[in-house]
Design brief:
By secondary structure, the chain is an alpha/beta fold. Helices cover 37% and strands 14% of the residues. It has helices spanning 16-25, 36-41, 43-51, 71-92, 113-122, 136-140, 168-176, 201-206, 210-220, and strands at residues 2-11, 31-34, 55-58, 127-128, 153-154, 192-198, 223-225, 230-231. The strands form 2 sheets. Strands 1, 2, 3, 5, 6 and 7 form a 6-stranded parallel β-sheet that branches. Strands 4-8 form a two-stranded antiparallel ribbon. α3 crosses α4 (71-92). The chain is globular. The chain starts with a strand and ends in a 7-residue tail after the last strand.
């Protein structure tokens, strides 16, 4: 038996409510990382996620690669999305208890990475509780100390509408592979994953209900999803 936290990037989207309904039918609470421009386009769908138990975190306003931004530009992008999310929580009538952050593309900022981690800590962003993650590379690469939320397994279904040579069979092959190249195996005993999926209407058009198919597979193969927990800033070490 393995456990996991589910994270879903790039909300909001047209299929966000359907994803939320499916997750609730399975008793799964996900951290849904919101892109500001997407929330503005699909505002009611984002409200639906909040009112139906999902945790909505900051995934930047513009979904830029942060290593290509100055520190000032990066902070401005984060804070612009903070204004969107504060309004979203207010309009949904939901208290904003936790404020997780995820960098677009997992790009922590390159030369400004240390300054961004300092900014996230000083501004009270919350770190996802990753204390059960035991992969050697997770600690080696510094993820135990980073404030932002990274992932241990990326389903990579977002590639379906982007790459003509990438098919749903490639997604399944990786999910079933006990030793996938350039990735940590999804399945196996006594693992704890932070799993990454995306809310993309473009993927929905190619593979309807993709999220249900992939998550059902995980459940059927012994992965149990846990409710996300977070470190408060004062509980997070140096």
């Amino acid at each position: 038996m393995s456990t996991a936290i589910l994270t879903i990037d790039d909300i909001a989207s047209g299929n966000t409510p359907a994803i939320v309904d499916y997750l609730n039918s399975k008793g799964i609470t996900a951290v849904m990382f919101a892109v500001g421009v997407n929330v503005e386009k699909f505002y009611e769908e984002a409200i639906y996620a909040l009112r139906n138990g999902m945790i909505v975190g900051n995934h930047s306003y513009s979904h830029a690669a942060f290593s290509k931004l100055t520190l000032e530009e990066a902070i401005a992008d984060i804070e612009r999305n903070e204004k969107v999310l504060n309004m979203l929580y207010r309009d949904a009538g939901v208290e904003r208890v936790f404020r997780p952050f995820r960098f677009p593309y997992g790009d922590k900022g390159g030369e400004i990475a240390k300054e961004l981690q300092k900014y996230l800590a000083e501004k009270g962003f919350n770190k996802l509780d990753d204390t059960k993650v035991s992969f050697e590379w997770w600690k080696r690469d510094g993820h135990t100390k980073f404030i932002d939320t990274f992932w241990t397994y990326d389903v990579e279904e977002y590639r379906l509408p982007l790459e003509s040579g990438f098919t749903v069979e490639d997604v399944w092959k990786k999910m079933k592979d006990p030793n996938p190249p350039h990735a940590t195996a999804l399945l196996g005993d006594n693992k704890h994953h932070i799993i990454l999926l995306h809310a993309h209407d473009e993927t929905e058009a190619i593979e309807p209900m993709y999220y249900m198919k992939f998550i059902d597979f995980m459940l059927e193969n012994g992965i149990s999803f846990e409710k996300p927990a977070f470190f408060q800033p004062q509980q997070f070490g140096d």
